[in-house]
Amino acid sequence: MHMADALISPVVGGAMWATTAGIATYAAKKVQHDLDERKVPLMGVLGAFVFAAQMINFTIPGTGSSGHLGGGLLLAILLGPHAAFLTISSILTIQALFFADGGLLSLGCNIINMGFFSCYIAYPFIYKPLVGGTPTQSRLFLASILAAIIGLQIGAFGVVLETLFSGISELPFSTFVLLMQPIHLAIGFFEGLITAIVVSFIVKESPDIIKKAAINQPIGAAPVKRIIVILMIATLFTAGALSWFASSNPDGLEWSIANVIGEEELKAPEGIHGFFAEIQKKIAFLPDYNFKHTDQPAEAEIKEKEAPSWPSVDTGTSVAGIIGSLLTLALVYSIGKGLQHFAK
Q1: Helices marked H in the chain — which ranges?
Q2: From residue 199, how far is each of 13, 84, 92, 121 by CA, in Å?
Q3: pTM of the model
């Protein structure tokens, strides 16, 4: 659901950037006293894990579409909403800057759609009331699935509204919304399922992590070392090898656009859009999670028409996944340590 700049006007993009900056400032202020020597590394590793997990697109049966973990809800359950918002914002920023996944002008939109709604709406108003104080396995699964579905539905509707208010594409509101909402219903179900499985693992290993996150407190003496090691191994394995098994089908947003205009991507106008596109082209050293192509245009066109292999064993994908995960870990860890320092 990473929006491209072609969907967004400069006014809407700028407004969402400003909104995101305000929320990030609020989150940074609120989270300072939650951070301790155990929570900061957990933030970093969870950020890296979600980055890697987002590379695994899963097929939505019977649609020709695919989806991937958003991760905002999972982070909110394990870290609390403020730390989660900063972590998912870091992930989306790394993806936009270095992997050209989502536009730079639309980065604020993507953080709101995939971060804010999960962390500040779905988690406190859907997940927490449903799961209760002493969650059973069935309540945990129910709460995770419903919260993921509702959070993603709001996010998908946000994409439609931001596109509508921008007014620079030819996507009709009614057709676009009737495609976006149902396909993200299915994606939300699988996101909720994955979230519940990961949270169940953490509950067995160290339940205090989730209890402290729910009341915005430091982790304290809760054991995290084994969890961090397991998550790091899972991150490297997912980024380095499981990423080969990602579905090549278009994601829910691309699929919806393709069903309206016949193409998965729109062409962005010149001007400000061109300015941001040029910056992204220079910074993104692993575009589309792979090495930069040096093929001539004709060769690239032939390759695009070839049926993708599955699994797609590709060194470039592995390198991109591992580097992206480590960059995310470094950024989130640095933000956590910086906030911890200023809180003293």
Answers
A1: 10-31, 39-53, 72-79, 81-99, 107-111, 128-131, 137-166, 173-205, 207-214, 225-240, 252-261, 272-283, 297-305, 315-343
A2: 34, 14, 22, 19
A3: 0.94
Question: Residue 65 has what DSSP assignment?
Answer: E
In the structure encoding, which two tokens stand for residue 205, read together? Answer: 């290993």
What would the pLDDT profile of 96-105 be if each residue is shown by its tens digit? 999 999 999 9
Task: Provide the 3-class DSSP secondary structure of residue 292.
Answer: coil
Return phi, psi of residue 234, to 5°: -60, -35
- CA-to-CA separations, 137 to 27, 204, 251, 327, in angstroms, rounded: 30, 11, 30, 34
The per-residue pLDDT for range 124-151, each reduced to its tens digit, is 999 999 998 777 899 999 999 999 999 9
Torsion-angle region of 100 (φ positive above 0: left; ψ -120 to 50: alpha; else: beta): left
* C-alpha span between 157 and 154 (Å, rounded): 5
